[in-house]
Amino acid sequence: MTKRDYYEVLGLSKGASSDEIKKAYRKLAVKHHPDKNPDDKASEEKFKEIGEAYEALSDPEKKSAYDQFGHAAFNSRARAGRGGGGFHDPFDIFREAFSGGGGGGIFEDLFGGGGQRSSSGPTRGSDLRYDMKLSFEEAVHGCEKEISLSKLDACELCNGSGAADGARRTTCSTCNGSGQVVQSQGFFSVAQTCPRCHGSGSTIDKPCPKCNGDGRLDKTSKVTIRVPAGVDTGARLRSTGNGEAGVYGGKPGDLYVMLHVKEHEVFERDGDDLQCEVPISFLQATLGSEIEVPTLSGSARINVPPGTQSATILRLRGKGVKNVQGYGHGDLHVRVIVEVPTRLNAGQKAKLTEFGELCDERVNPMRSSFTEKAKKFFS
């Protein structure tokens, strides 16, 4: 299936700013989150597609490469099934096209002189991606999470060397240590990875019996991820060195953890600010009162001025989310909703009727103003 354009997936035009990309991702991620759409395969696939698009466009380097080369900028050889990722040089697609997949080839022969090449040597391991779900409280307060993931780790028996005890490593007789073999095809010389040493430039007379000389094994590893306070959906954490093991002693890749924060029953988040709705009675709104409201650190009290209208927003400074960069806290915005009494008994209705008869335009200035404006349409 042909992949959709990442900008199209997020409903954006090419060249969108990082803030626009982040806002679009948050909105779509909340809409298609598996928790809100249980047993909905279409939403689940959409959620994954949104995450993939955001991962590419939120990183300046990846975004630049995607803007130039489209989906071809990302190497498809990343390991499937492990959340594998990895970002590769987009020019690799051209190198592979002219070298049969082994590196080298036409570009080196035409512009680099051809001939013997140095061994490919150690190769860095692939980066991996892991999608982590967090509760609202874990995200705003920070936490530590231990995760399990299947990946290629260095063989413990040979420490990643691929050689058994007492084994000898000798220069590959096929490529003479270059890691590549060159085949002439008419005017051109094409370099390919050596089939004997697989690009390492050397061979082992006794390969490790546990990993069969590969130096890596599939293992399930446990990794502890420290989540800082104040993160939100769309944030990405990097765990250095916890990707796949390198080849022939190369450095391991990194693990990138994509965060997905669940919605809260009371609070709604807007950056570092929080919003919540608190119902108050008609009497509290009319006469004014002090009410108790929830905050991240417990409860707090806030004054409701006399004559407060429904949907009025009251602010508690510093009661929002801690800024992930350490720049203080956001605010808590409390939207008060005036609750209209229901199921009144006869006595209560009588008292309200009496109160209504005592009211004039000074008591209800908004209604009086609206009435005057509306008369113009009927005059």
Give keywords.
379 residues, alpha+beta, Helix Hairpins, Chaperone, DNAj Protein, Chain A, HSP40/DNAj peptide-binding domain, four-stranded mixed sheet, three-stranded mixed sheet, 10 helices, elongated
Largest sheet: 4 strands, mixed
| Global geometry | elongated
Q: Which stretches are poorly predicted, pLDDT < 50 over at least 5 residues?
A: 76-119
Structural class: alpha+beta
- Gyration radius from CA atoms, angstroms: 32 Å
Give the count of helical stretches: 10
Percent of residues in beta strands?
Answer: 25-35%
CATH architecture of the largest domain: Ribbon
CATH topology of the largest domain: Chaperone, DNAj Protein, Chain A
- Our measurement of the CA-to-CA distance between the termini, rounded to an integer number of angstroms, reads 64 Å
The number of E-state strands comes to 15
Number of domains: 3
User: Any idea what the CATH superfamily of the largest domain is called?
Assistant: Heat shock protein DnaJ, cysteine-rich domain
Strand order of the largest sheet: 10-11-15-14
| Helix residue percentage | 10-25%
Indicate the CATH class of the largest domain. Answer: Mainly Beta
Task: Describe this structure as you would to a colleague.
The chain folds into 3 domains: 74 residues, DnaJ domain (Helix Hairpins, Orthogonal Bundle); 173 residues, Heat shock protein DnaJ, cysteine-rich domain (Chaperone, DNAj Protein, Chain A, Ribbon), CATH 2.10.230.10; 73 residues, HSP40/DNAj peptide-binding domain (Sandwich), CATH 2.60.260. It has 10 helices and 15 strands. Strands 10-11-15-14 form a 4-stranded mixed beta sheet. By secondary structure, the chain is α+β, with helices and mostly antiparallel strands. A hairpin with a 2-residue loop joins strand 4 and strand 5. The protein starts with 5 loop residues before the first helix and ends with a helix. The chain is elongated.
